[in-house]
Each structure stands twice: as structure tokens, then as C-alpha cells.
């Protein structure tokens, strides 16, 4: 069965600029692990100090909402365990998210768009 592709954007609570390049590296590891647990694959990840963009290939039987809840929940918990991240009342991510089906656009175009984010602490 063919995988479906979704572009996801998560923003920090109140768009606080709390993420660093090191945080994004850790988020990449965590997101990849969570995706693997659900039979999905993290294709691309980048972001800025107040949001992240992900491109995920996932099996049709996994609901996007379940994927998002797992990604946001586990990543917030792991980031707080490893770093001293400024959160609002223990919440790293805003409760909302952006999800867009990536079936129509060429994947390389989406990957290039995600790579264009101005990662904190990296020249760009």
C-alpha cells in the first residue's frame, strides 16, 4: 500500500521564540522515533525559534490527528526532560496545528520549502 504524505506545522505556545538549533536536532530524533512507532517516516524537518515544519509519510490506517497528538506530546515531554525550555504552564506547543495533504506537489519542492526555514543558530 502506498504511503500518504502530510506537511505539518506546529507553533510554540503564544509563538514564543524558545527553540534553538540544538532543540531542533533533538526534535528531529524524537519525531523520527515517534513516526517509526506508528509505521510512518519523517521525511524532512526544519523550523525557526517559534515553529517547526515536518513532512511525514504515513500509512493510510493512521489518522493524522493521532499522528499529531503523538508527535506533539512525546516531543514536548522529551524536550523538557533534556533541556530547560521556557514553556507556558508546562505547554510547549500551541493546541492548534497546520496539516496539508502533500499528494499534489512534488515532494522535492516541499522538502526545499521546509529547508528554507531560518534555523536558529545556523547561517541561513
Explain what this protein looks like in three dimensions.
The protein has helices spanning 21-37, 64-82, 107-115, and strands spanning 4-11, 41-48, 51-58, 98-101. The protein is of the alpha+beta class and 124 residues long. Strands 2-3-1-4 form a four-stranded antiparallel sheet, sandwiched between helices. A hairpin with a 2-residue loop joins strand 2 (41-48) and strand 3 (51-58). Helix 1 (21-37) crosses helix 2. The longest helix is centred in the middle third of the chain and has 19 residues, at 64-82. The radius of gyration is 14 Å and the shape is globular.
Relevant terms:
4 strands; alpha+beta; 4-stranded antiparallel sheet; 124 residues
**Distance between the amino and carboxyl termini:** 38 Å
Q: Globular, elongated, flat, extended or rod-shaped: what is the shape? A: globular
From N to C, what is the helix and strand string?
EHEEHEH
Number of helix segments?
A: 3
Please report the total strand number as a whole number: 4
Helix content, binned percent = 25-40%
Largest sheet: 4 strands, antiparallel
Helix-strand makeup class:
alpha+beta
Beta strand %: 15-25%
Q: Taking strands numbered 1, 2, ... along the chain, how are they ordered across the largest sheet?
A: 2-3-1-4
Estimate the mean pLDDT confidence.
89
Q: Which segments are poorly predicted (pLDDT under 50) over 5 or more consecutive residues?
A: none
The radius of gyration over CA amounts to 14 Å
